């Protein structure tokens, strides 16, 4: 049984006239009559009673008409949804992100994407950069917001900068340097540092170490914490200082002050995905993220 048989049956059932049905289908009457006979033979039931003067649909034909219309409606909807899926308007998208992304570009990107693609199921999972890279390779997430180490592109991961922001020094609110604005980084040379472990954020960790070394010192790391929120909380206790993305100032934790670092040093948040991923949903998301990020913080 083919869809053309069902289409022909519906036309005859609604017109109750082979000539009018054939004209409606833009075919000649003999092929139409043949299709109806083939359909009846395949089902094993007479669908129409035919006389020289009239065509009547049988009781079985009426039942089949109801189901045939349903089949055609489902087919039409299936085609429509398939086209939408091919355009990336349907499907799912799993996003990984580091904590600081939630204070910068990510919420706006998600908002803009949802406005345009409301039927895409979006899931977000906060995870460090290393875990995001693993999740990308394992296909557990489709795109990540991170600060990856250099050279990751050679491992089949595409990386694109989406947000640039200043780095700030996080220091206890009773610290002698709290009044320094901007704060020369070299003044922190003798301070105790609280950092994100390198294995969790290699790109960010390496950039901070390099920045300090440019100022003539290597930071004395006394504690490591897996999340920026925890780092800020430890700074608030007076244990040490840290260098963080400026967006983390929005955490508004008591006991900590943030000071701009002299020289206008910055950090870049990257968007990463598996090179060659054919997902149209991912393609649409990347396009939206680029446009949104460009409007918030152009990365050149």
- Order of SSEs, N→C? HHHEEHEHEHEEEHEHEEEH
CATH topology of the largest domain: D-Maltodextrin-Binding Protein, domain 2
The computed structural class is alpha/beta
Give the uncertain stretches in residue-range form.
none
CATH superfamily of the largest domain: Periplasmic binding protein-like II
CATH architecture of the largest domain: 3-Layer(aba) Sandwich
Kindly estimate the percentage of residues that lie in beta strands according to DSSP.
15-25%
Mean pLDDT: 93
CATH C-level category of the largest domain:
Alpha Beta
Gyration radius, in Å: 32 Å
Helix content: 40-55%
- The beta-strand count equals 11
Could you give a short account of the major beta sheet? 7 strands, mixed
- State the distance separating the first and last CA atoms: 59 Å
Output the number of helix runs: 9
Based on CA inertia axes, which overall geometry fits? rod-shaped
| Count of domain modules | 3
Q: Can you describe this structure in just a few lines?
A:
This protein is α/β, with parallel strands linked by helices and 300 residues long. The chain has helices at residues 3-15, 18-25, 29-43, 59-86, 106-116, 129-137, 202-214, 228-236, 280-296; strands spanning 48-50, 55-57, 91-97, 120-126, 143-146, 157-172, 192-195, 220-224, 242-245, 256-260, 266-274.
Overview of this protein structure:
Helix 1 (3-15) crosses helix 2, helix 1 (3-15) crosses helix 4 and helix 5 crosses helix 9 (280-296). The two termini are 59 Å apart. Helix content is 41%, strand content 22%. The chain has nine helices and eleven strands. The protein is α/β, with parallel strands linked by helices and 300 residues long. The strands form three sheets. Strands 3, 4, 5, 6, 9, 10 and 11 form a seven-stranded mixed beta sheet that branches. The protein has helices at residues 3-15, 18-25, 29-43, 59-86, 106-116, 129-137, 202-214, 228-236, 280-296; strands at residues 48-50, 55-57, 91-97, 120-126, 143-146, 157-172, 192-195, 220-224, 242-245, 256-260, 266-274.
